[in-house]
Design goal:
Elements (H helix, E strand, L loop, with lengths): L2 H8 L4 E2 L1 E7 L2 E7 L2 E5 L4 E7 L3 H9 L1 E6 L5 H7 L11 E4 L2 E4 L4 E13 L2 E13 L5 E4 L2 E4 L4 H5 L2
InterPro entries: Flavin_Rdtase-like_dom, NADH-dep_flavin_reductase, Split_barrel_FMN-bd
GO molecular function: FMN binding; riboflavin reductase (NADPH) activity
Organism: Aeribacillus pallidus
Length: 161
């Protein structure tokens, strides 16, 4: 099967957009990812998938912790920044949650302690136990077919505003 065909098919699954962040030796590291999911309520576990070639892989393996920042509709530039898609990096405002750097004003911030690491093809899956959560009330940034999207405002929601 062709790699492009596989990637295109996987792109038909609409996802939210996250920035995974961690801190190691006093330095903050982040990367854009849409490979994130919740996997258990008891204990509260989430999973992220990091490519073998990503610089973030070693950072999480060393720190044994990560935060998931679910981006809001107006944070596309942050997603592009952490995906290395901008000519000039933007200044990112971080705050702390559970001892981890998290992106200020993200839709949700989730701090995690790594409890398991699983090799899966050319990626490593990190299962993290959730240690803290912070949320805001905004619309999410979405990703579908290789492009950013936002939730469409329904006529009823717009009319009642």
């Amino acid at each position: 099967m062709d790699d492009r065909l596989f990637r295109n098919a996987m792109g038909k699954f609409a996802t939210g957009v996250t920035v995974i962040s961690t801190e190691h030796n006093g330095d903050i590291h982040g990367m854009t990812a849409n490979a994130f999911m919740s996997i258990s309520l008891n204990p509260k576990l989430v999973l992220i998938s990091i490519g073998e070639k990503a610089k973030m892989l070693e950072k999480i393996q060393q720190s044994k912790k990560y935060a998931v920042n679910i981006l809001s509709h107006d944070q596309q530039v942050l997603s592009m920044n952490f995906a290395g898609q901008l000519e000039k990096p933007v200044d990112v405002q971080f705050e702390q949650l559970g001892g981890l750097p998290v992106i200020k004003d993200a839709l949700a911030q989730i701090s995690c302690q790594v409890v398991n690491e699983v090799q899966a093809g050319d990626h490593v899956l990190f299962i993290g136990e959730v240690t803290d959560i912070n949320m805001t009330e905004q619309d999410p940034l979405l990703f579908f077919s290789g492009k950013y999207h936002q939730l469409a405002q329904s006529e009823q929601a717009t009319a009642s505003s």
